[in-house]
Structure prediction request, 71 residues.
Amino acid sequence: MRAILNISMPQKLKDEIEQAVEQGGYATKSEFLRDVLRVWKDQTVLARVQASRDQIKSGRGKTLSSLKDLR
Prediction:
């Protein structure tokens, strides 16, 4: 099921989204925004993974002996 989200943005951003759609990169403005959100989510996960790696390298990471240790 889809939900509708109305957003407000500067005209310049709206124009850029419409341009991306017109240039054929996306079928609709909604598709463009869904893709932007997926990229943002991916970057968020990658940043968390990198932070965990940094903790492990600095000796602050936790070694798990089983998945139960995640609780």
In short: The chain has a mean pLDDT of 90.
